[in-house]
């Protein structure tokens, strides 16, 4: 058996891990899009490193675009097998992949219109028709059910606590009478998350493919999230009379923000200013979460006893049309704008940042992970000038960050996730989905916990197991 790492290898996006059995059955774990990788992003997304037509099965951990975003291209290029995921993951993929196709088509059309030679040089990675065909190949598996995807392969999902529907993947592979258990963590969430249940324990594995995004960090803020939001909004909107711009992923982060702001209202502490969610996708994603209350933790279930809509509060408005979105930039009224994308690499939030970044009254608030090469990453790093829309902008607005809102577990969470494993029985642990320096530090922590055989795969590297 072989495992090859064709994405999220010494990087945090583009998740793709290919298991090849001795009988040449090929199981692809995730098929994510590379994001925020600078000029090489398009090149990385154009090359899989394997033939899609040769992949037998695909198992999807969750619906974030860096884990599912290239599925339609995989199908368009010849993959015809089944795509296994949890029910909420399929619901999210339906809206996220269609949105991704629309954005790519629009970007390609814009690039071609503005091409000086007048030549059609840009094409989307996939179209809406490709998304429709891809969705027809999805097959749903509930959490904690053993499902035979192949006479030699059994699949089980356990809750990873990262976003709605996120799962750790557990494969039991039988070859020549020998059972091998392979676990892929997907992305591991926080223990004590605002909304979701804790990541589940899982059976002993022989091989583990483990994410390591925050393998060198602790999400320890001095104040609870609600208090930090209240302080930032009060100071910016009520004292300085400015705007708070929050880049936030449409799935997960936006809903956590709304839940925290709703919590402030329930305590009569919510600052009295307008709140805008400027992302049509966020509205759809919020509805998906409302449709799956089974994912909520006990704390949320208690709140639901006194508040039947935990994502709605006074002053909140969802913005859908482009006209309404643009009007926010013409309005000087203090307000809070939550908009995607979370790394500020695309979407409407870039326009809001551009229009507010050079005014000292305003605050740009980061609420999660951002790759160093992304606009959000550069702002977090303290850069005083940033490049947007073919122009440089001075960073005069305050830049703040609430790291504890990350949907990724910190190193204590990741070690907790592995705590049910006997390190002596883990033959190899592969670290993926992390910056190389971070992975090296996390590997040292894991060795202190007794894991002896740890590998940090390079891009396209293959291992015999």
UniProtKB/TrEMBL annotation:
Domain Beta-Casp residue range list: 254-379
Keyword Secreted appears in the UniProt entry: no
UniProt KW keywords: Hydrolase
GO function terms (MF aspect): hydrolase activity; RNA endonuclease activity
Matches recorded under InterPro entries: Beta_Casp, MBL, Metallo-B-lactamas, RibonucZ/Hydroxyglut_hydro, RMMBL
Membrane spanning stretches: none
Domain Metallo-beta-lactamase: 13-226
Name by which UniProt lists this protein: Metallo-beta-lactamase family protein
Organism: Pedobacter metabolipauper
């Amino acid at each position: 058996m072989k495992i090859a790492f064709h994405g999220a290898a010494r990087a945090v996006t583009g998740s793709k891990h290919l298991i090849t059995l001795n009988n040449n059955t090929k199981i692809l774990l995730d098929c994510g899009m590379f994001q925020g990788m600078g000029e090489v992003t398009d090149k990385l997304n154009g090359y899989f490193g394997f033939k899609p037509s040769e992949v037998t099965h695909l198992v999807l951990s969750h619906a974030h675009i860096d884990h599912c975003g290239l599925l339609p291209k995989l199908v368009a290029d010849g993959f015809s097998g089944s795509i296994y995921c949890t029910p909420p993951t399929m619901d999210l993929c339906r809206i996220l992949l269609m949105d991704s196709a629309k954005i790519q088509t629009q970007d390609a059309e814009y690039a071609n219109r503005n091409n000086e030679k007048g030549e059609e040089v840009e094409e989307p990675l996939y179209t809406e028709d490709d998304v429709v065909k891809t969705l027809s190949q999805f097959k749903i598996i509930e959490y904690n059910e053993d499902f035979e995807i192949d006479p030699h392969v059994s699949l089980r999902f356990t809750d990873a606590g990262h976003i709605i529907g996120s799962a750790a993947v557990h494969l039991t592979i039988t070859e020549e009478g020998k059972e091998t258990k392979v676990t892929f963590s997907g992305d591991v969430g926080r223990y004590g998350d605002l909304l979701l249940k804790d990541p589940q324990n899982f059976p002993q594995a022989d091989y583990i493919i483990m994410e390591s995004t925050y393998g060198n960090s602790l999400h320890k803020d001095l104040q609870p999230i609600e208090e930090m939001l209240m302080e930032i909004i009060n100071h910016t909107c009520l004292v300085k009379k400015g705007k708070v711009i929050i880049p936030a992923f449409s799935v997960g982060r936006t809903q956590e923000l709304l839940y925290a702001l709703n919590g402030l209202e329930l305590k009569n502490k919510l600052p009295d200013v307008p709140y805008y969610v400027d992302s049509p996708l966020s509205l759809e994603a919020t509805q998906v979460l409302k449709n799956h209350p089974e994912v909520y933790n006990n704390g949320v279930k208690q709140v639901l006893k006194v508040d039947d809509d935990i994502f709605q509060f006074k002053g909140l408005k969802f913005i859908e049309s482009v006209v309404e979105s643009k009007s926010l930039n013409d309005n000087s009224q203090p307000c809070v704008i939550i908009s995607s994308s979370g790394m500020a690499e695309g979407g409407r939030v870039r326009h809001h940042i551009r229009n507010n970044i050079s005014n000292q009254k305003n605050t740009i608030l980061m609420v999660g992970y951002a790759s160093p090469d992304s606009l959000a990453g550069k702002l977090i790093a303290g850069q005083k000038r940033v490049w947007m829309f073919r122009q440089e902008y001075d960073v005069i607005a305050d830049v703040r960050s609430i790291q504890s809102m990350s949907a990724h577990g910190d190193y204590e969470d990741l070690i907790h996730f592995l705590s049910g494993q006997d390190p002596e029985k883990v033959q190899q642990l592969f670290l993926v989905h992390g910056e190389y320096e971070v992975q090296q530090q996390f590997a040292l922590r894991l060795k202190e916990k007794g894991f002896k055989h740890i590998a940090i795969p390079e891009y396209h590297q293959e291992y015999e197991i």
